[in-house]
Amino acid sequence: MMMNSTSHQTQQPFFNRRIAALIGVACVCLSVASIGCGQLKYRLAGKQPETFMPNPVQLPPASDKFVWQQTVDAVDDYFRIAREQPVQNTGGMVMDGRIETGYLVGATLLEPWRRDSTPGFERLQSTLQSIRRKATVIVRPQGAAYSLEVVVQKELEDTDRTQYATETTASRRHDGTMLRKGDDYDDSPQTLGWIPLGRDSSLEQAIMRDIFGRITQRDTPGLFRSH
How many Cα atoms occupy the beta-carbon half-sphere of 145 within 13 Å? Predict the structure, then answer.
């Protein structure tokens, strides 16, 4: 009788710990269900969302040459500049600055060093489709300050057929028409034009944040810079 009582007393704390553990697991499951998997992932990641910048955005007062040099240097990291008209805001001369880039086929997932496609949907779409973009950047003097506007147009290639379509322009005809095919015949899909897809707001935001940071943030001391 003494042995049964001792065994019961020994097993009692073990059952209490199991009940406490089950209650804890149930509380965790309820908390995950209440906030959702997406919310839990966001809370664990701890990364703050990027601040949305208005387009156009206001730049602080600065030298017109400095503002223009930083703008050109930033845009050149994304596109090849085709035409530019520097901004003027000194000596009584006030003139808008304008940069126009050439069209550039979108960067794919296999080209992480290129910045003309933002991570996520835009880069995936540029990988699966023929997408091209061009940018127009306008810097307008407003007193001693400036207004920066970035417009990125996106277009989709329109072809006569898909890349690996079963139908071709050189298929055999049975209507009596004579068809001659030479060895140099190009049977690849032909571009009919480009379909406008609107503006790429994510790339506009990236370019504006880059230019805004270059103008407003102070350079940190580097290897060859003591001050």
Answer: 9
